[in-house]
Amino acid sequence: MRGIIFDTRSFSVHDGPGIRKAIFFKGCPLKCLWCHNPESQSFDRESMPGVQRVGNKSFGQVQAIGYETTARDVMQGIRADIPFFEESGGGVTLTGGEPLAQPEFALELLKTCTKESISTAVDTCGHAPRNTFVQSMPFTNVYLFDLKLADSLEHKKITGVGNELILKNLELLSSSGKNIIIRIPLVDGITDTRKNINNIKEIVANIKGVSRIDFLPYHSLAKNKFCKQEKEYELNRMENYSKSKAQEIARLFADLAPVISVGG
Prior knowledge:
With 264 residues, the protein is an alpha/beta fold. The chain is built from nine helices and eleven strands.
């Protein structure tokens, strides 16, 4: 089975428990204004200007974004990190982009990892067919599930899609007893309004199996990526989110999960 990814990263510690191997899938049904991986949004292979340095000289170079690969080839890289998984309680995280937007490729990786006793995580925006979630559940140990905006109209305005399917899939995972890590991005004036935070809190309070809630304060690191790809960045003047403000919001959720973190 072949799929399109744009990166893999060993020794990741922010994509689930322990030391992880993160596999970055290309393509996402959402187009979040603050997306920190804009190169993941399109399902097509792309390119952007880059620089190659040889000694003291620099040369312009076109950098490819995304490449087609097989589950077999990805597994070879995963197996090289197994000693680190075993030592740390880590494993493999499918992220992106949206990994469940390439369901056959994602499922083959999840099944192979499970067969080889490698712990798996899926980092998801939640916008995927219900049946895709159902098929993934036997082979996924933990879901990193994004919750951005509680109001569907606001969600569509900011991300391009409503949130009805997302919330239904979260309820599905909850009723199935899956381990869930909720991830909440904090973007000034967008996701951190009192109304949205209160409504997100109400949603989370009714979800079973939440082992952790990560608050992800906005940062401007993606601005340069948008610029290189000649994509419009609507948050160009936004400052990095205040850590103290993020901590205040996190305290409101203290009774909803065993672990609450700021920064992932």
